[in-house]
Write a structure and sequence with these properties.
Structural class: mainly alpha
Number of domains: 2
Radius of gyration: 17 Å
Shape: extended
Helix content: 55-70%
Length: about 90
C-alpha cells in the first residue's frame, strides 16, 4: 500500500513540472544519469540512431532484421497487414 501511495505522490508531484514518459521514468532499475540520457533522446528524429537500435535489437534477439514502432498497435496493424488480414 505504501508503495502505491508513493507512486501516486511521485506522479502528482512531477505532473506539472516534467513531461512523464512512463517508458522512461517508470523503470526503477534506471539510474538518474540513464534517465537523463534517455529523456534527451525523446522527440529526436535520427534515422541512423533508429537503424543502430534496430540492428542491435535484432542481434540481441537472435534475428537478422528488426523494425521498431512507437506504439504496439501500429506493430500489430502492420503484422496483420503482412499476414493478409484486413483491419476495417
Amino acid at each position: 500500500m505504501k508503495r502505491k501511495l508513493r507512486k501516486v505522490f511521485y506522479a502528482l508531484r512531477h505532473a506539472p513540472t516534467v513531461p512523464f514518459y512512463g517508458f522512461i521514468q517508470g523503470h526503477s532499475t534506471l539510474t538518474g544519469g540513464q534517465l537523463r540520457n534517455a529523456e534527451r533522446l525523446v522527440g529526436i528524429d535520427d534515422t541512423e540512431l533508429v537503424k543502430a537500435f534496430e540492428a542491435e535489437f535484432a542481434n540481441q534477439a537472435g534475428g537478422s532484421d528488426a523494425v521498431s514502432f512507437a506504439a504496439a498497435r501500429m506493430a500489430f496493424f502492420c503484422a496483420d497487414e503482412g499476414a493478409g488480414y484486413r483491419s476495417r
